[in-house]
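Q: I'm building a small set of examples for a reading group on sequence design. Run inverse folding on the following structure and report the sequence directly after it, with nothing in between.
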């Protein structure tokens, strides 16, 4: 027969097992949503690649043009499944022929995913980038292949996004 101490130990182990199992479930949920987000950005990248191919390399002024002009059949590709916020789009006024391949053209809002952000680049590749801080300005060091002018433009956009979203 178990003593009160034995039952207490069993209860403590059961609670710990339950809590650890729940965390693993949350982690798995985050990984699934992150993969879905990555896939949506890939779909968006494919549509942008076709669009720029038919428009002299120019990116659309806004992402919604892809849907309106039939380059994209699902408007859900405009937003992250995590929080359902539209991706931040910085491709307007860019041309595929003149922009660095490492220039981000669409990306998550900070805090859509724990400690990382998904980015669609001008070469239509998608990458998950770890976040060191919860702000856009902290990301500029991650984009090493940009020209000085592109880096300056992106830094200004990131500062503006920080003002809008974080009142910095």
């Amino acid at each position: 027969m178990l003593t009160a101490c034995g039952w207490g130990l069993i209860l403590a182990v059961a609670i710990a097992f339950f809590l650890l199992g729940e965390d693993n479930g949350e982690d798995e949920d985050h990984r699934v949503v992150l993969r879905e987000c990555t896939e949506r950005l890939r779909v968006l990248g494919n549509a942008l690649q076709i669009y720029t191919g038919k428009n002299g390399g120019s990116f659309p002024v806004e992402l919604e043009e892809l849907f309106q002009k039939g380059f994209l059949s699902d408007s859900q590709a405009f937003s992250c499944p995590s929080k359902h916020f539209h991706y931040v789009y910085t491709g307007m006024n860019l041309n595929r022929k003149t922009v660095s391949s490492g220039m981000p053209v669409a990306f998550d809002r900070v805090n859509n995913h724990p400690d990382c952000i998904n980015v669609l680049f001008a070469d239509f590749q998608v990458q998950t980038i770890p976040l060191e801080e919860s702000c856009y300005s902290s990301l500029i060091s991650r984009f090493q292949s940009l020209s000085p002018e592109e880096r300056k433009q992106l830094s200004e956009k990131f500062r503006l996004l920080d003002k809008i979203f974080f009142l910095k």
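The chain has one domain: 4-166.
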